[in-house]
Amino acid sequence: MHFSQFKHFNTSKIPVAFKSFAHTFQMMNDYEFSTNSSYLNVGTEFRSEYLLLRYLSVFNKRTWTESIHLNYLTTPYLNSYWEAGYSLNSLFFVGNVGVFTGFKGSKFESVAVKISISGFE
Question: What is the DSSP letter of 11?
Fold first, then answer.
């Protein structure tokens, strides 16, 4: 089959990216799990000004927002891969920083700290 007939998932393995964390797999190789058969891909982000750090008096005057990310993928070759993460968004109005963990089924795979330079989202 031709490369364009495969479904390629939104990934960003590099530590500093110019795209949003939302709905993006942070620790998957770019084309490793592309597929031309059935798949299930679910991504969600919950964003709020008051999740964790803003409740602390030292941080409550800052302008950032916080997000919790969850992405899930299953294909015939990759069974139940998911990533969970936490990020601070709009730091200094230009960037985001996040911590993400990856799992295959219930087995821990990896953890990463990522930076995203994407401005306002």
Answer: B
